[in-house]
């Protein structure tokens, strides 16, 4: 009896190979041949699942984005049944910084995808959608806190801050503990107090 192939699992295996190569060498160095070798499959197998490099990169970007979203959901769930708005936003943004082993492994590939999105419309569109959802969620949490502030601008400031801190931590310009302190400084300004502030 022929072995049943899990096509989604095979596509994710190829996506993991793309992300591994991107993290080590950048996306410009990623070719179908290299991805096939990294994934341990034939080049024909890669071409069977993806029509070309751009389609493969978009799938890999969505796969890594899904992993980041799962980590964020786990971090927020770990806060317990009634976390403060500040704690939720901090858990979410903290997972975007390369602090944990998983985040450090993913951040170089994410950064490579961000750079590629400047010239790749499909990647840029995916980033716009995800970014808008993220900013909208953060703005909603900011609106839940009493006080006069522009929630949309504050959310955009926080996400831009974390994007910049991620790059600076990756390139060694800023230590991880300083990045966390900078994030906390801005969260305190918006939400008041420290962890647990409502």
UniProtKB/TrEMBL annotation:
InterPro entries: BetI_C, Homeodomain-like_sf, HTH-type_TetR-like_transc_reg, HTH_TetR, Tet_transcr_reg_TetR-rel_C_sf. Gene3D superfamilies: Tetracycline Repressor, domain 2. It comes from the Bacteria. Residues 31-50 bind DNA. SUPFAM superfamilies: Homeodomain-like, Tetracyclin repressor-like, C-terminal domain. Residues 8-68 form the HTH tetR-type domain. Keywords: DNA-binding, Repressor, Transcription, Transcription regulation. GO terms for molecular function: DNA-binding transcription factor activity; transcription cis-regulatory region binding. PANTHER family: HTH-TYPE TRANSCRIPTIONAL REGULATOR RUTR, TRANSCRIPTIONAL REGULATOR-RELATED. This is Transcriptional regulator, TetR family.
């Amino acid at each position: 009896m022929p072995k049943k192939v899990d096509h989604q699992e095979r596509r994710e295996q190829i996506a993991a190979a793309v992300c591994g190569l991107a993290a080590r060498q950048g996306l410009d160095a990623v070719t179908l041949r290299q991805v096939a070798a990294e994934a341990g499959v034939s080049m024909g197998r890669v071409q069977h699942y993806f029509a070309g490099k751009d389609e493969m990169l978009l799938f890999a970007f969505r796969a890594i984005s899904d992993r980041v979203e799962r980590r964020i959901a786990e971090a927020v769930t770990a806060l317990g049944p009634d976390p403060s708005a500040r704690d939720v936003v901090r858990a979410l943004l903290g997972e975007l910084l390369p602090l944990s082993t998983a985040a450090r492994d993913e951040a170089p590939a994410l950064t490579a995808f961000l750079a590629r999105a400047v010239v790749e419309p499909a990647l840029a569109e995916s980033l716009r959608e995800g970014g808008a959802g993220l900013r909208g969620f953060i703005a909603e949490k900011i609106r839940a806190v009493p006080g006069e502030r522009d929630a949309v601008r504050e959310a955009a400031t926080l996400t831009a801050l974390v994007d910049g801190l991620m790059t600076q931590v990756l390139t060694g310009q800023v230590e991880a503990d300083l990045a966390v302190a900078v994030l906390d400084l801005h969260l305190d300004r918006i939400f008041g107090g420290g962890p647990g502030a409502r």
